[in-house]
Prior knowledge:
Putative uba ts-n domain-containing protein, Ubiquitin-like_domsf, five-stranded mixed beta sheet, alpha+beta, Ubiquitin-like (UB roll), four-stranded mixed beta sheet
Amino acid sequence: MGSTDLENLLEFGYPRNRAQLALKNGGSLQNALDWLNKNESTTMQEQSVVCESNELSTDMTPLKTGEVAKSMVCDDCGKKLRSMMAVQNHNRLSGHENFSESSEEIAPLTEEEKAAKLEELRAKSREKKAQQAIIDKQEQKKNEKIRMKSTKEVQDAKERLAQQEQMKAIAKKRQEKLDDIAAKKRIQERISADKEARRKKAEAQKAEREGQAAPVEPSFTRTMTASSQSTATEARLRLQTSSGTLTKTLPAETTLFELGQQIQAEAGQPVTKFTTTFPRKTFSGTLDFSKTLREAGFVPSAVLIVN
């Protein structure tokens, strides 16, 4: 019957060496399947060591003189067993240790009983494989969720870094433009001052040649033209965040992006927009965050809601 049991195990999809070891340890097809299920996570080397060291340590009650042992009986539960291999397997599974030899012969299974038993074992094997497939699928979904979450976090971090780099580049370009405008203005003022000095010198020389007093420049009262921006160099800000109120005084040329970075470092939350209460206005996105405090109208002071 051993070869038939081996063929059945091979038909169930078990490797030959593992199936042979299971039959050696279990004795019957049912016991071999139980043994395989119990030891499916161990390696062949580990299983071989267990089998070699798994000697049965039980109390055996011998037959009376003249009787021939044809089977074994578990004294703890009364179960009848066909062979010593079955006794060892029963001891391993149940922990029972008291057995007796019996002269009673256990009738072999009929062909119908064998077929029914085999079909039962096949059904159990299919059920176990189906359950394992469900577990594997659930584990695969779980791992996929973890992978997707990790991928999204990495992508979000890359996007935040790219946005920060973009804002820095915009701020740098804006500052370079402002520096260029200021330099051109200084040059124009110097040219105008030199031109005015030459004009005054020429008029004075002409008056001296003609024997006249040097003309006196009329005094004018200079009036300041209205300007849409404050001449203050700093902005005093009152910032209302979800974790409390912050007060800051920053240079007027600080960008909203730089302000957001400072708030994030102190409050521990990313900043996506600023809102003024009166007049109601919202600043968000790359274009708005590239503006300076002066350009946004926050100079000399402003109250902002931070989100």
